[in-house]
Write the structure tokens for this entry.
Amino acid sequence: MARIKTAVLFSGRGSNLQALIDAAAKTDFPAEIIQVISNVPGAGGLVRATTAGIPTKTIDHRSFKRRTAFEEALNAELLDAGIELICLAGFMRLLTRTFVDRWHNRIINIHPSLLPSYKGLRTHERVLEDGVRFSGCTVHFVGAELDAGPIIMQAVVPVKADDNPAILAARVLRAEHLCYPSALRLVAEGKARVVGSKVELTNISTPEPILINPEVGLPNKSGKAASP
Ligand code: GRF
């Protein structure tokens, strides 16, 4: 089986990078991480990749006068490594339309909210301010707009009464670590393909339960509604 040659781009601690490295360490995983690139010198995730024996590169965006020059360097590195698919994992740089078009439907990203809600930064703070009962994460193909593009997979977590942003972020992050490798698997296997503005899934099962938060006072905790 030819494994999809994948690069992970990141800027920070790299816990999602680690989840992807761990999944792809299995030889039957359909994607192989062959390049890890940080735009931040000394970012924590670099050690994770090195430990796993994956080549790393730091391309510091601050050493380029223009965003396009930074992206040219990035693009050259990816082409040089023979990359077929890019995973953004906490990569804190906006990509221009030119770059996104070059890698059309070959860049995926994880965002710590249920998109299209809560795009951008401070997601957990805003979720708590709004008092919504569920949050989660989204893996999506990258479009030219911020945190937009066809959705591949989402995971839902409850928001609890005594949450603060750090507690909620940790719960969402656990979901991210499950979701991102699964979504990458789907893409690499060709089971999640962009058709128009959406992702079409092949041979996929969908969960049945209805989730209600808070759970108190439900007539039937099994989640079964009364017959119509
Ligand atoms: C994650 O919450 C991810 O969803 C967001 O940035 C964070 C990166 O965390 N895009 P890590 O570096 O993967 O630990």
About this structure: The chain has a mean pLDDT of 94.
